Each structure stands twice: as C-alpha cells, then as structure tokens.
Amino acid sequence: xxxxxxxxxxxxxxxxxxxxxxxxxxxxxxxxxxxxxxxxxxxxxxxxxxxxxxxxxxxxxxxxxxxxxxxxxxxxxxxxxxxxxxxxxxxxxxxxxxxxxxxxxxxxxxxxxxxxxxxxxxxxxxxxxxxxxxxxxxxxxxxxxxxxxxxxxxxxxxxxxxxxxxxxxxxxxxxxxxxxxxxxxxxxxxxxxxxxxxxxxxxxxxxxxxxxxxxxxxxxxxxxxxxxxxxxxxxxxxxxxxxxxxxxxxxxxxxxxxxxxxxxxxxxxxxxxxxxxxxxxxxxxxxxxxxxxxxxxxxxxxxxxxxxxxxxxxxxxxxxxxxxxxxxxxxxxxxxxxxxxxxxxxxxxxxxxxxxxxxxxxxxxxxxxxxxxxxxxxxxxxxxxxxxxxxxxxxxxxxxxxxxxxxxxxxxxxxxxxxxxxxxxxxxxxxxxxxxxxxxxxxxxxxxxxxxxxxxxxxxxxxxxxxxxxxxxxxxxxxxxxxxxxxxxxxxxxxxxxxxxxxxxxxxxxxxxxxxxxxxxxxxxxxxxxxxxxxxxxxxxxxxxxxxxxxxxxxxxxxxxxxxxxxxxxxxxxxxxxxxxxxxxxxxxxxxxxxxxxxxxxxxxxxxxxxxxxxxxxxxxxxxxxxxxxxxxxxxxxxxxxxxxxxxxxxxxxxxxxxxxxxxxxxxxxxxxxxxxxxxxxxxxxxxxxxxxxxxxxxxxxxxxxxxxxxxxxxx
Length: 716
Known about the structure:
α5 runs antiparallel to α16 (371-391) and α14 runs antiparallel to α16. The chain contains 24 helices and 20 strands. Residues 1-5, 462-466 and 708-716 have low confidence and may be disordered. 45% of the residues lie in helices and 13% in strands.
C-alpha cells in the first residue's frame, strides 16, 4: 500500500502548516538554548512542576510537596495542575526543555483549535489558519505563556467552542465526547476563570440558529436534540475532572478563598484593568513599553497582561467582520464587550452585577484576566472578517491574499512576542544561586533544609530609580524568592502567596512577616527557627542593587521533634498572643484545643525521634515517647497531615502554633504516618477512571453515515 499523501491532502494541510511555521518563527526563542524565566515561572510554576515530576519518577503518589511551606498538599496546588496531560513533558524531559515544549504545545494547540472553530463559520482553510494565527499571537496569548496552567486552558478554549458547535449541529456520541474532553481539559488546567469563559462562550452559542445546522427536516437542529448533548458533555466533563474538583474543594474549605477566608469582591477587584490602558487594546506601547518599565501614570503595578491587543492586523480584520453577513458577528461582539467590561472590574457596574449572578467569579484574582474572553471574541470577529475579505476576491487571488495577511499578522506581533519572553541560561534552573549554596548540601535527619526568605518582604531589590521587569527577574533569582529554593532541594517557609491551597492561618503568618520584616524584628528569626528553618535570606544594603545575605539559624531545631512544654487554649487569639510574647519558645507546643475550658500548661519529659522518611507519599516517623507519653510537634501544615496513623490506627492531629500539626503520643515506640486526607480523592480517582473509559467508548464508537444535507462549506 502506498504511503504517499495525496496532493489534495497536502493542499488542505498547507494553510495550517504555513501558519504554524510563522508561529514558530515568531517564537523561535523557544527553539533555541536557555529556559523561559519570566514572571512567575522560576518562583512558582517550575518548583511546582519539579516537585510533581520528582515524586512520580520516584514511584511515589504525589500527595505532598515536601518543600513548599515545609510540606503542602501537592495535588491541590493550582500551579501544579497535576492532572493536565501536558505534565508528561516534565516527567520525560529536563525542566528547561519541558517548559519550552509546554509553551510550544500550547501555542500550536491554540492555533489549530481556533482554526477549527473558524472553519465552522464558513471560511476557507486559509482564512481559518490566519484567524488561528491571530489568536495564537494575540497579546493575551503572548502574556499568558509564563503562566503554564493558564496557557493550557487558553489553548483549549477554542476547542471547547468548536466542540459545542459540532454538538449543536450533529448531536451524537462523538460530538458529546469531544465537548466533554475539551471541557474536562479546561477544568484540569486549574484556572477557574476559564471555566467561566467556557460558560460565557456556551451562552453565546446557545440562542438562535447556528449556520449549517440540519434537523430531521433539514432545518435548524431542535433544542431538544442538542441541549441534552451539551448537558451530557458537561456531566461527563465533571466526572473526568473529579480528582481536580475534589482536591480543590477540599483545599478551598480552609483556604483564603474559602468561606471566612476574607476573599470577597473588594479583594478580588485588585488587579483590574486600568482604564487608561484601554487604548492599548488598539496597539502596544500607547501607555508604556511593558518590556522595560513596571509602572506608568494610572498603572501602579506591573499589569497581569503586559500586552492586551489582538494586534493591529487582527483588529482591522475584526472591523471587517462587523460588516460581514450572518448573526455570528453579534455573538462575537457580545463576548468582546463582556470581556472588556469584566476586565475593568469596579470601574463599571457590570463586573459586580455578573459576580452576583455567576458563582465564584468574584474568587478570580485580577479581573484583567477577563480580557482573554475579549480576545476570543475579537479573533472570532477577525475570522468572520477574513471570510468577508476572501469572498470579495477572485478565486485565483485568495490564496496569495490570505498568505500575505498571515505574514502581516506574524510581522505585527513579532516584537512583543520577542521582548516579553525572557530567556535565561539553563543554569538558572540547574544550579542554585550562591546565597543558597551552603544549604544545598546540608540535609539533616533525612529532611530537606528549610529557608525563610525575608527578601520577599523587603523593598530593596531593584536598582534605585528603575523598575525594569527584566532586571527584576534577575534580582529575584539572586535573592531566591519565593519558592525558587525548592528547585534545589531547599524547602521554603512563610513564603508570600495567595492561592487556593494556602490555608487562612498560613496566610496570616505571611501577613505577620510582611508587617514585621521591614522593622527588622528579632522575633521573625525565632519564629523561623521554631518552625524548623535552617536559615533566613535577608538583604544587605549596597549602592545601587542590594545584595542577598544568608543568615544561619544555629543551632538548627528539627522540624519534627518532641517538646517538653505544652500550652493549650481554646481561644486562638489568646494563644497566638502568648506565643508571640514568649518568642516563641522552641521547646513548647502551642495547641489550639477546643476541649480546653481555660488556658492550661503542662510539662513532659522529652521523647526521641528514631527515624524519618519524608517523601511525596507522606511523612513517616519512628518515635520513642517517654514514660507517661509525650507531644510530638510536626512543623508541617495541618492540611498535609490531616490523615494521621499511629501503628496503623487513626490518630488525632492537633492544631499547633496556629496552622501546623502536633500529636499526643503514648509511652513507648511507635510508627507515625501523616499525609493529606485521601478518602475523597480515592473516590474521585474511581469516578474519573470510569468517566475516562466512557469517553473512550464514545469516541471510538462507529460513526453513523452522514446525510448529504449535513455537508456544507462551514464544516471543518
């Protein structure tokens, strides 16, 4: 059998292949040496991915990131996006290569997905490929590249839209499977805002007729046929993503975004699009060159999206789309307008009104993110504009005209793509900065050394009078903030954060550090040492750029140890006050005990730690408790120790020092294991596995023959 590809097949693939080549040329830095190192990559996403890969390679179930905050639930961390299939790259490749592969995969996925979606509106393959290129090179797509989970969801959004259209036109097993798979991939990307964007896109596609629909009589597909298909796809997507949903739900109960966590509309509105930046929707640099400055008049902080325009060529095509035929342009305009208004946050009443109607939208940080929805709508308009343009051209000129437009799109977006993607030497993820060198080779008791980074809280990291974002990234690496040390086997404590998995009590600790660090309070070192830290990273003032300095906390105190004094109190404020007044005392466990009717104090002889195994699948301690029993202080967040067993039997975990863990251990030798609560997760794995099997059956089921009326110019 010949393996030669028919010429017609080559012609069909040529437009998309050409657009992909242009995309790779624009992002050629990802094909060369070095590692992308901008924004939160070094200090948030790479450490999370490295912890996940380390656990899986070791054959351990990745329940715990034993480095972050001295040990935090790993599967619930949004930065990990543990169930995203793209994580296989971090298992198979070095960190630098995996990061570049992840970004390239998302860019190509976005291009292809938006091209498929564009084809469904009657445009040619060439026009669809150009529209896909506009989406893949838009300002928002360029801006989200350093946010690995966000780039994943952003790339899948057009696939979800395309699947929803297909499920409307041809309800059936395969279209339900496609929609469920796309929706599930958005959920496992761990970016809740894109779940909302999928909802808004679905709302735009739901009312009225969709071109190309064919029902039993050749007319519009009846709602009673396609709506059950959409509902079935949503239910299957929820089942597929059950492990992600359950892990986040369990983490969110006590997190800063959960009930009582203090995260409401007033906090959520921080990071809204500055109204002065609306002009940057038209072109980059109209307010500031965000590759060189971090603030500008009217913009107090570095924006979440340093580039927000779809591009000048894309906007001209979108303008043409406004005058195209059909009702799709109104749907696209609606999404674009909604995205811009939501991004402005409290500057208009729209954001607050939608937050009160749409569940959890107010828990999304940085409303500027909603420009992703506006970008989708604008590029949809551009696709319609491309269709209008090509219909006005003679058949022989269409190919050349579309090729020229694709090149113009790439040329227009090349500069911001190059300037905003900082590529550092690969050594930045392979070799620790000098300030960490003394700790990297100094594990104790089988436990990674821990560091508290005061530099995260001190405003002395930049050259006086400048706020160059690229200089900032280099300074942050030198100062090893905030989770960057975990790339080199050094745990971090009291690192500033505000994500879904951070419990309220731990956030309060970081807030204490934020308020006390500038004063140089000696109590911060005592708190760090009591939590098992080996050192602190501070700042030494120098002319120009300050320098990091490592302050050793000698002699170090083990993070897992028996104490000789226990203070119990049912009142957290009173307990916390006593702890701060005392220093805290390194030999004391401060236990928040609801059973204590009044503050109590007891003294016990010291037990001993015989052996420690600190791994991703849990913490295992062999301990020898003294006569009469002892109290074992475990300086690990309670969320990572909720499931405790002693000699195979369940054991009670006590709230120690407001946020950490302790256990009362009876006299004698015992084996103690601690890990996050797993029962709900095990059930979620079963549900997800069954849903995956059902998805495979739906996708592989025999395809029904299409009726002649089903074919049309807007089929992909």
